[in-house]
Design a protein that fits this description.
By secondary structure, the protein is mainly alpha-helical. Helices cover about 30% and strands about 0% of the residues. Strands 1-2 form a two-stranded antiparallel sheet.
Length: about 260
């Protein structure tokens, strides 16, 4: 019977893969630590190495033993989720009386700006400032208690937190309308914004109250006389099919597509 020979190129590839496999095995034996895998998918000796490092941070619970008033104030504030050492630095030595030096009292604006300088990527409603415009000659703690940094005056305008949205709406057909015309806003929203979120409309019929053919909106809405404006009308049954309005129109600038 005739026997088929293995092609030369297959033999050559087999030799290459053999060398690669042996090489990877030798490299693994050379570089993988001996204790790897003893306690899990990591180097077990790393536990002792990390434990040998000097302790630097004490934790806010230790701070509370002596600074009860400050910790209680912070628990009720916007900074309640921050550890004391985020602003004051490592405090293990101070808490254990290993040194006479007390943690620094941060007074420079740069520390606060690490979290509160304006960045478009930060969530809407997060307190942000433009450093050059916001009290440039004052230090932050002049007006804000770091342990309870609520503003001295509760913002009365939506633009205090939603400035970008307000600027867009100001040049749109919806400019005369107050934000509360479309957003049912709890009274506490300006004080605790994330715990009292405004309601957003989710139905086509909501926009249809003003824009549907035959709709009869009230003549005056929150002080705005709608009779002075030429409100655009559409047939809700045929316009846009099953799409909701904001899939084509941006609510704060509805003429844009």
């Amino acid at each position: 019977m005739r026997t088929r020979k293995i092609p030369v190129q297959v033999i050559q590839l087999g030799v290459v893969f053999l060398f690669l496999g042996v090489g990877m095995f030798l490299l693994r034996q050379r570089f993988v630590p001996e204790s790897f895998g003893d306690l899990g998918h990591y180097r077990a000796n790393a536990v002792g190495a990390v434990a040998a490092h000097p302790i630097q941070y004490a934790g806010w619970q230790v701070c509370a033993d002596c600074h009860t008033d400050e910790v209680e104030t912070k628990k009720r504030s916007y900074h309640r989720t921050l550890s004391c050492e985020v602003c004051h630095g490592a405090a293990w030595a101070h808490a254990n009386e290993e040194t006479d030096e007390t943690p620094p009292l941060p007074t420079q604006r740069s520390l606060c700006l690490q979290c509160h300088s304006y960045l478009p990527s930060r969530p809407t409603g997060f307190p942000q400032i433009v450093e050059e415009r916001h009290e440039p000659a004052k230090l932050c703690h002049t007006c804000h208690n770091p342990h309870d940094p609520a503003p001295s005056e509760t913002p009365e305008s939506c633009s205090a937190c939603h400035a970008a949205i307000v600027r867009v709406k100001a040049v749109s057909h919806h400019a005369p309308l107050d934000c509360q015309v479309c957003h049912e806003t709890p009274a506490q929203h300006s004080v605790l914004p994330r715990s009292n979120l405004p309601r957003k409309p989710f139905e086509r019929e909501f926009c249809g109250k003003c824009h549907a053919k035959g709709a009869k909106p009230p003549n005056v809405v929150r002080g705005v006389d709608l009779r002075e404006y030429d409100i655009r009308r559409i047939d809700l049954d045929t316009h846009g099919g099953t799409l909701v309005c904001w899939q084509c129109h941006y609510q704060h600038s509805p003429e844009a597509r």
